Amino acid sequence: MGSESALRLPILDFSSLNQLEPGTPEWVSKTVQVKKALEEYGCFEVVYDEFHTDIREKMFGAIAEMFNLPVETKSLNQLKEPFHGFKRYESIPLFESMGIDDPQIFEEVKAFSKLMWPNENDIFCNTIHLFAKLLAEFDEKSRRMVLESLGVDKYSNNHIKSTYYHLRLMKYKAPKVENVEIGLNPHTDKGIMTMVHANQIGGLEVQTKDGKWINVNISPNSFVCLIGDSFGAWTNGRLHIPVHRVMMTGQEVRYSLALLSIPRGGQLVKAPQELVDEDHHPLLFKPFDFEEFINSEHTTRRGLKTYCGV
Ligand SMILES: O=C(O)CCC(=O)C(=O)O
Ligand SMILES: [Fe+2]
């Protein structure tokens, strides 16, 4: 099915995120909007006024510079998680990605930059760290909102402590011919939440519950937030888990960055008892360990439902 250009994702204004505090009328009204968008679409566009043009341009310049390094250099970044580190896949030749764990910690970005550039790269470190911090702040606040809206905010602190952050930088080459080509295959994200920002090149599409594809808009002052499998499972199906893909057209390279919140291994992702009742909300997923799930997914790609659906 083709993209339905008339459809749009809900747009939520979070431009004064740093002033948004629990208990205020603004907080309560945003919480209602977040819940509605996530139940219906599992994602929304977030308007945000902290992405200043000069920093943004420097950042995308530094990302391009990183992807232009030799493959041998990029391959120096090996991470334990099977989808992290430097990645290319034969089936999607336009795509290339690079990952950094805990990028909200400056030293982690610096350690990565030392691998890529022996003389380091201050512009890369400062801009990537800033964007990761801004997106992490949104992740934390919006997760608190979701839990509050479901009446389980007593779990918020533990929920946030039980995850870590990962940053994925992505490059999508332009298709060779004047054509539409797949940039990233349809998938759901595996973790809790994903926040995606991109340069001015479009391509991200999200599938609605009834199977239509929506072109996602990402402006210089916005990003997209999507729910992953683990948050869908933890909320026992209260939030929709959106399938999404990237379709490339035109002649320009697309760069994007995604901050992911991911459950730590060694503990179970398990819906709280308040969200499970036999009559109206029977348990949808058996409790699972994220690390075991992702390792299985790497070889089988069968999805969470097959892995541990009830
Ligand atoms: O590049 C994008 O817009 C989307 C990336 C994505 O879906 C992912 O990293 O999981
Ligand atoms: Fe994704």
TrEMBL record:
Residues 163-263 form the Fe2OG dioxygenase domain. InterPro entries: DIOX_N, IPNS-like_FE2OG_OXY, IPNS-like_sf, Iron_ascorbate_oxido_reductase, Oxoglu/Fe-dep_dioxygenase_dom. Signal peptide: none annotated. PROSITE patterns: FE2OG_OXY (PS51471). One of its GO terms (molecular function) is oxidoreductase activity. The keyword Secreted does not apply. It holds the Pfam family 2OG-FeII_Oxy. It comes from the Eukaryota. Keywords: Iron, Metal-binding, Oxidoreductase. The keyword Oxidoreductase applies. Belongs to the iron/ascorbate-dependent oxidoreductase family. 2-oxoglutarate-dependent dioxygenase essential for auxin catabolism and maintenance of auxin homeostasis in reproductive organs. Catalyzes the irreversible oxidation of indole-3-acetic acid (IAA) to the biologically inactive 2-oxoindole-3-acetic acid (OxIAA). This is 2-oxoglutarate-dependent dioxygenase DAO. It comes from Kingdonia uniflora.
